Amino acid sequence: MTKQLTPAEAWQKLRDGNGRFISSTSSHPNQDASRRASLVNTQDPFAVIFGCSDSRLAAEIIFDVGLGDIFVVRTAGQVIDDAVLGSLEYSVSVLNVPLIVVLGHDSCGAVTATANAIDSGTMPVGFIRDLVERITSSVLTSRRNGDTDINAAVEEHIRQTAQRLADSSRVVADAIENGSTAVVGVTYRLDEGKADLVSQLGNL
């Protein structure tokens, strides 16, 4: 088992990997047969990424990590539901992950669909409606703050999602309070590949 990282060390490791990805110097660590074999009976990820399902937001690639390095949970628009909360609580309470990253990205389709629904007054059908309803407060808050740009709404949604996670899960809230885990909100820039810090809960 590797040394348990602090939340700050885990965040720095992700930042370093993202820097390599941006500069096209990715090292593609922990992706060989020996690493695969070492993980057959155990895993010890140093971070959990709760991100948008967008195909351009592949966490292992943009943070230049490999097998067993990160625990990944994804939904469209990084929308929280009970399964997400259970997965994140598992990562904190069982896997002892020191860092949760709420990962959104600019030009998010789910946030754009929500803005369009607000503007048109027409809600989408099926379960897409549920996604839109869960993102609506973020878009409305952004607009009340005078921001009409969709990427401002994306960042507001990242902040609200991170806070909602802490408010909804006693397991996560306790881990933040005792310093064993931190939650960061991060937005990914599609054009440059950069992951920027938007919000922070707990110490880094």
From TrEMBL:
<dbReference type="InterPro" id="IPR015892">
    <property type="entry name" value="Carbonic_anhydrase_CS"/>
</dbReference>
<comment type="similarity">
    <text>Belongs to the beta-class carbonic anhydrase family.</text>
</comment>
<keyword id="KW-0862">Zinc</keyword>
<dbReference type="GO" id="GO:0008270">
    <property type="term" value="F:zinc ion binding"/>
</dbReference>
<dbReference type="Pfam" id="PF00484">
    <property type="entry name" value="Pro_CA"/>
</dbReference>
<feature type="binding site">
    <location>
        <position position="105"/>
    </location>
    <ligand>
        <name>Zn(2+)</name>
    </ligand>
</feature>
<feature type="binding site">
    <location>
        <position position="52"/>
    </location>
    <ligand>
        <name>Zn(2+)</name>
    </ligand>
</feature>
<protein>
    <recommendedName>
        <fullName>carbonic anhydrase</fullName>
        <ecNumber>4.2.1.1</ecNumber>
    </recommendedName>
</protein>
<comment type="function">
    <text>Catalyzes the reversible hydration of carbon dioxide to form bicarbonate.</text>
</comment>
<feature type="binding site">
    <location>
        <position position="54"/>
    </location>
    <ligand>
        <name>Zn(2+)</name>
    </ligand>
</feature>
<dbReference type="InterPro" id="IPR036874">
    <property type="entry name" value="Carbonic_anhydrase_sf"/>
</dbReference>
<keyword id="KW-0456">Lyase</keyword>
<dbReference type="InterPro" id="IPR001765">
    <property type="entry name" value="Carbonic_anhydrase"/>
</dbReference>
<keyword id="KW-0479">Metal-binding</keyword>
<dbReference type="GO" id="GO:0015976">
    <property type="term" value="P:carbon utilization"/>
</dbReference>
<feature type="binding site">
    <location>
        <position position="108"/>
    </location>
    <ligand>
        <name>Zn(2+)</name>
    </ligand>
</feature>
<dbReference type="GO" id="GO:0004089">
    <property type="term" value="F:carbonate dehydratase activity"/>
</dbReference>
